[in-house]
Automatic annotation (TrEMBL):
Keywords: Cell membrane, Lipoprotein, Membrane, Palmitate, Signal. It comes from the Bacteria. This is ABC transporter, solute-binding protein. InterPro entries: Bact_solute-bd_prot1 (IPR050490), SBP (IPR006059). PROSITE patterns: PROKAR_LIPOPROTEIN. The lineage of its organism: Bacteria, Bacillati, Bacillota, Clostridia, Lachnospirales. It comes from Lachnoanaerobaculum saburreum F0468. Residues 1-22 form the signal peptide. The keyword Signal applies. It holds the Pfam family SBP_bac_1.
């Protein structure tokens, strides 16, 4: 934990030292990134989405539609993405376009971003009628500026499952409550499998789970605490922390989960490798429920032709009620130093309301932000339609937003969750969260 905090501090200090160089570095970059030798406009784009499986086809199609624009895409896993972006933006060497999440990261990077609303008004006629208004609202900063264009809507938390392995282990149904989850873990372990593969080293999935699950203990309490209307030490949050700890104690997760990332480790080394029966993720990962999904080609579950499905994560509260959270899963921002805003908006329109959006929706990467696009992909998985319907309903009935707006509190919750899982007292850890909240006001 100390190592994680030291790394964050080091990055923050490095970024601060680089701010002084930002102006001149940005100026030197602007000329170089404007045009290629053949007269094309070149745009650099950094994000964690599209995935490597998606990007070649998506970019190829865009460049076919827009032969005068070239996209140079660099993908980084989400857990490492913001560290890389922070240093690059502070030094003035950031990309023309970059992926972003709503919440604290959006607030932090809004100062580097072009006003998306103004750019869209100038270069994309009628965009306000085409993009989901709730998604647009979530993509605005506290000042009301549209920081980036939303791309996908997603919900937390879901459980991807391998029905073939469930049958082998004698697990009769996908768990919906904690007793059933514990029973599934015992049966999976008896057959030599991990129950749930979880990337508990990731701050984003840990805090997403905390926000989502705390709503099951007391709906809406987490949003009241975020506003200062109640304490982070309240019973519902202690109960949430205890439920988190219990999953480690009861062997629900893999050994060493605190040191494992969701992507690619938990996914590739456990679920895709056929070593776990379940995988903790979100609604954006419905793709593998299709037998023709390219993501599972060449993996053990793909080679074995296992039947894959997805359901809401089991309730860990005494009530047994499953309540999800939802929000913009990805937005794309334009660097305020970008000198090709019109070309950048063409790419953003393509991703949010054009062929790129349709590709993502067909890929089951998330729910559409476009009001004009619906799923048109193939239904070839045994559990695919059922999974799509159940997960989409879970997301539609969400109790609230996935993300908190206070980045310091989110970081504190993540640290507290890791410490509690390692044996620390939940009450004391939540006292620290409250102290950090108080000092951040």
């Amino acid at each position: 934990m100390k190592k994680t905090l030291k790394r964050f501090v080091a990055i923050a200090v490095s970024a601060t030292m680089l701010f002084g160089m930002a102006g001149c570095a940005a100026k030197s970059q602007e000329k170089d990134s404007k045009d290629t030798s053949d007269g094309k406009v070149k745009l650099t784009f950094w994000s964690w989405l599209p995935t490597n499986d998606q990007s070649d086809e998506m970019i190829k199609e865009f460049e076919k539609e827009n032969p005068n624009i070239e996209i140079e895409y660099t993908r980084t896993e989400q857990d490492d993405f913001f560290e890389k972006l922070q240093v690059a933006m502070a030094s003035g060497t950031g990309p023309d376009l970059f992926g972003m999440t709503t919440g604290p990261m959006m607030e932090q990077y809004s100062k580097f971003s072009m006003d998306m609303g103004s750019a869209a008004d100038q270069y994309w006629s009628g965009w306000k009628d085409k993009i989901n208004t709730n998604a647009v609202s979530q993509s605005k900063s506290k000042s009301g500026t549209l920081v980036g264009m939303p791309m996908l809507i997603a919900g937390m938390t879901t459980l991807m499952y391998n029905k073939t392995l469930m049958d082998e282990c004698g697990i009769e149904k996908v768990p919906t409550n904690y007793a059933e989850l514990k029973d599934a873990a015992d049966k999976a372990k008896a057959k030599g499998y991990v129950c749930v593969a979880a990337g508990a080293s990731d701050d984003w999935i840990n805090t997403d789970w905390f926000v989502q699950t705390s709503n099951e203990f007391e709906k809406g309490a987490v949003y009241e605490a975020e506003k200062g209307d109640r304490k982070w030490t309240d019973k519902c949050f202690v109960d949430t922390m205890n439920a988190w700890k219990k999953m480690f104690d009861d062997g629900i997760f893999e050994d060493g989960a605190l040191g494992i990332s969701t992507y690619p480790d938990a996914r590739d080394q456990y679920f895709f490798a056929r070593k776990s029966v379940f995988f903790m993720t979100g609604s954006w990962h419905l793709g593998p429920t299709s037998t023709s999904n390219t993501e599972i080609v060449g993996t053990e579950i793909g080679n074995k032709k296992d039947v894959i499905g997805m359901e809401p994560f089991p309730s860990v509260s005494d009530s047994g009620e499953r309540l999800g959270t939802s929000g913009v899963d990805l937005m794309v921002c334009i660097n305020k130093d970008c000198k090709n805003a019109e070309a950048a908006m063409k790419f953003i329109e393509y991703l949010s309301d054009g062929w790129g959006q349709q590709y993502w929706v067909n890929y089951l990467q998330g729910s559409p932000v476009s009001n004009e696009i619906k799923y048109k992909g193939t239904i070839d998985g045994e559990l695919q339609q059922q999974s799509i319907d159940n997960v989409n309903k879970y997301v539609a009935d969400a109790a609230g937003s996935r993300k908190l707006s206070n980045s310091e509190v989110e970081k504190a919750i993540h640290v507290a969750m890791q410490n509690v899982a390692a044996g620390a007292d939940p009450n004391k850890e939540l006292e620290t969260v409250q102290q950090i909240y108080d000092s951040s006001k």
